[in-house]
Amino acid sequence: MSLTVIxxxxxxxxxxxxKQVFRYLLLDAIGSCLAxxxxxxxxxxxxxxxxxxxxxxxxxxxxxxxxxxxxxxxxISMFGLAGLYHSPYRKSRLKEFGTSLSITIIGTIVLFFVxxxxxxxxxxxxxxxxxxxxxxxxxxxTYIPRLVITTQTIYRIHNRIIGYxxxxxxxxxxxxxxxxxxxxxxxxxxxxxxxxxxxxxGARVDPSLILGNINDMPDVIARYDIEDVIxxxxxxSPQTLTxxxxxxxxxxxxxxxxxxxxxxxxxxxxLNRIIGTTLVNVSxxxxxxxxxxxxxVLDYLLAVAGLILSIPIxxxxxxxxxxxxxxxxxxxxERIGLHGKPFFIYKFxxxxxxxxxxxxxxxxxxxxxxxxxxxxxxxxxxxxxxxxINVLKGEMSxxxxxxxxxxxxxxxxxxxxxxxxxxxxxxxxxxxxxxKYGYAENIEQMVERLKYDMLYxxxxxxxxxxxxxxxxxxxxxxxxxx
Length: 482
Description:
This protein is of the alpha/beta class. 51% of the residues lie in helices and 10% in strands.
């Protein structure tokens, strides 16, 4: 096929993810309410009527309605934790079926032992009937409507009615070929290409379609609400590819690449579709959706518990800080968080007022800027109690790489460009790097600590988080925070 210059690219309407999630939530709520109503009707007219030998009519009372509220919220929470509301426009019907089936089985068994094991029954066979009836009602009445929405969405994507705003990184032969391949697909994968990112060895694409160069990518992605980035790079240097990935990985985008023949021969290409242009997923979620959701719930619960339990200690520290040195009790400082977004971190002030009047400077073991109270707080990590506020605001997690200032990030990426990969997860109150290495006194030590945070990123799990929290608690009691 001869390659021609592209003359025009359509604009794409941003997909309303909240509206789509609301559809799923609404139908799950209706399905759960209907399942609870029919289940109680079955209990009264079949199970209890059989037990007592008389016809018992189902009359809704206050217990029924309280159960209705609990039952509905319970199933929506279970479906949410399982990740069924995650990425509402990017669903696989087969995976959704497996997840729905698994979570409904687990949820039904839990409800049975919590609520229904003490039901009066004529024989033990009734328990199996109750269990099976609840499972079938919940599964059918929630999964079928969900399947309808998913099928409608997939139909609209396949027929190019809706799509994901996409850019192609590359401006040479491979980029142009990729564009034509994607747009000639009979069944669309959903990519709606808005333009190209120019690379040094490109110059095949019409200049009017170039949205920027490598360094412009973050701005281009923000400006056009880009969701997908396709790497279609010709004969660029390894350094160029590294620069591209270091800029893209922290951003909230899906990264895909055109595989080379070498990738195919060595078995690196794993198909997740049997139709359309072959693409390799470069970006990935550090944790399975259900673990990420459980982690987020735990973050909020632990943050609330941490703030409440620390009130007596916090009040004493606030008095001690105020008496020991002048200045505010709470110190806030701008840090860089998830996807490179800045936020203000809150801590108890551990240094004298205007400690950085001469510019940013990392602390060290015998730093004269640290107050006596501050030295105690740093050893026990108690200065970080206000970090729980950042967790409740959704800016931080309990466990995650410690956030840094832009001033030091700019220096770090000169030495270790892969530092930016840490920005694809929320920063944390405590981290593997903090536990294993502690505070860093210079850029070299920050780079050394970075390897522990990278290991955490590659092995993120709830199990690892619990281990880090245990080690952090031990550090606090031993007073070895510095």
